[in-house]
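Deliverable D5.2: sample structural annotation.
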Amino acid sequence: MADIKAEYLACPIRQVVSRFGDKWSMLVLYMLYTSERQRVGDQGSGMTGILRFNEIRRLMTDCSQKMLSQTLKNLEQSHLVHREVYPEVPPRVEYSLTETGKSLMPALTALIAWGKEHFNEVVTD
């Protein structure tokens, strides 16, 4: 049993996919990637991919507030999402992709393209 556990811990596929392989994580990552909103004060900087919690929530109406909060925390702990808190009243919190998160996007967009191409073959009643 100890050999299997050590094997599991050393497996990069299991470890990486377990961090963001769920449907909510992938949706959040893709939404941040495709967002065109800029940070307040970053006029013309080209900085995109920033959303507030409620903006993400509006885009993911089928995800509970608790699940979205947990998903964002997990993505932040995995260094895929950056959480910026502004000292204002009320506090403003913005989420964006980290460089590590951005580096994942070619693989995620390729997976989405594959899913679109093979949707009818894979998704059956």
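Annotation notes: The longest helix spans residues 99-117. DSSP finds seven helices and three strands in the chain.
The annotation will be released with the project's public dataset once the embargo ends.
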